[in-house]
User: Fold this.
Amino acid sequence: MPPTITKLFSDHGPHDAETITPLLEGQRFRLEHIASYGQPSPADFWYDQDTLEWVALIQGQAVLVFEDGPVSLAAGDAVLIPPHCKHRVSEVSMDAVWIALHADSSGE
Assistant:
């Protein structure tokens, strides 16, 4: 049986909600495809994750806000977010597509 093909730029769901599709998972990591469809993080919500996150915006534009201030991203930009670095998505384009790698860095 041939490998499964994943369409990174196809329509991954309804346009009224962000969709997160797991692509690959291991004991210490999870790789996800995220289609945002213009939905930022909920007001006053902050991600505060136990894992390291590397996120790449592969299509569209977005603004991530950290406690130290905002970071604007365009297609092709990536950022490494350490564990417990509070952040949120304050702006995101309708066509935004992300690849996110979450990794347990506790046993480096």
